[in-house]
Amino acid sequence: MTERVLERPIRPQISISRIVLPTEHGSWSFLLEPLIVGGAIAWSFAAPWIMLMVVAAFLSRQPLKVYWLARGNPAAAAVSVRFLLAFLAAAAIGMAATIWIAPAALYPLALAGPIAAQQVFADLSRRSRSLVAELAGAAAVSSSAAMLAIAAGFSVSAAGALWLIFVCRAVPSILYVRNRLLLEKGKNFALFLPVISHFIALGVCAALAFVGLASFLTVGVFAFLAVRSWFGLSPYRSKMKAMKIGIWEVVYGAVTVASMIIGYYLGV
Q1: Residues 204, 166: contact at Cβ < 8 Å?
Q2: How far apart are CA 172 and CA 131, in angstroms?
Q3: Which of 78, 90, 162, 194 is the most exposed place for a label (fewest CB within 10 A)?
Q4: Residues 54, 91: Cα–Cα separation, whole Å
Q5: Cα(42)–Cα(22) distance, rounded to whole angstroms?
Q6: Is residue 67 classed as helix, strand or coil in its secondary structure?
Q7: Pair 222, 202: CB distance under 8 Å
Q8: From residue 105, how far is each of 53, 159, 168, 208, 235 by CA, in Å?
Q9: Distance between CA atoms of 120 and 127, rounded to whole angstroms?
Q10: Span 99-103, mean pLDDT?
Q11: How far apart are the C-alpha atoms of 143 and 105, rounded to whole Å?
Q12: What is the DSSP letter of 191?
């Protein structure tokens, strides 16, 4: 009598890093840049709690997405739920402390919350890499600069200007990188939209500088990025791989951050 051996189907394992860390590497720059600037020029007792809230909320996205999309894999779903609850608890602690110390700092969430919800909806709909989702995510996470500024006693106009500068940095960058990657792959790409978005961002930043809400050093960086956007999508560019394009965007983000901090303390 032969013995029948029933084997359980082997489910693919998902690494912890894929459950915890966002897959969009550029999103880290959009998270950290406003936090660094806000912490450098607008530190307050509420700042660590705002940072905890923002970072934990940012990190909760990936476990939520994994749980929703991997419901057929109980092991992955269970791990993702544990991380999701831990991040949400940390975000709640940060929010509660912020409400206790500087409740007005949460006012930007009235605008950032619905924008962030758009990205979460895209995540759960398997469209996290869509243009709308990326733009929404960058705009929402940039609100941390405004929250830090308000907590430190900055005016609403100064806090809004900080947020707007980071939106003007992120949106053209996303449009440029997406089209630069298409160009390097030999696919159809748009030239006008990325370039014009850079020049619009330059105009907005210059207007803010003229009324004392931005640094002229940052205007210079935006002017360079506008020229870069045209050159990088032109036949005169040097061909680059995706990783190198991403690294350069991180460098440009660091230069933007430095210009904002130095400009603030030098008053230029």
Answers
A1: no
A2: 12
A3: 78
A4: 7
A5: 27
A6: helix
A7: yes
A8: 12, 10, 22, 22, 46
A9: 10
A10: 97
A11: 10
A12: S
Distance CA 76, CA 69 (A): 10
Closest CA to 184 of 230, 235, 133: 235
Tokens of 189: 């790409």
Whose CA is closest to 28, among 52, 55, 67?
55
The predicted pLDDT at position 77 comes to 77
Dihedral sign, Cα of residue 20, residue 88, residue 119, residue 68: positive
User: Does residue 147 contact residue 105 with C-beta atoms inside 8 Å?
Assistant: yes
| pLDDT category of residue 14 using cuts at 50, 70 and 90 | low
Residues 7 and 193: their CA atoms lie apart, in Å, by 55
Query: How do the domains of the chain map onto residue ranges?
Result: 15-154, 155-268
Summarize the confidence of residues 27-42 as an average pLDDT.
Answer: 94
* 119 contacts 133 by C-beta, under 8 angstroms: yes
The residue type at 92: A
pLDDT, tens digit, 9 for 90 and up, residues 155-172: 999 999 999 999 999 999
**What percent helix, strand, coil does the chain show, rounded to 5?**
75, 0, 25
Residue 67 burial (CB < 10 Å; 0-12/13-18/19+)?
buried
Give 145's contacts (C-beta < 8 A, 6+ positions apart).
Answer: 34, 35, 37, 38, 42, 159, 162, 163, 165, 166
Distance of alpha carbon 107 from alpha carbon 109, whole angstroms: 5
Where do the DSSP E strands lie in the chain? none
User: DSSP assignment, residue 105?
Assistant: G
**Whose CA is closest to 202, among 183, 230, 182, 179?**
230
DSSP conformation class of 21: S
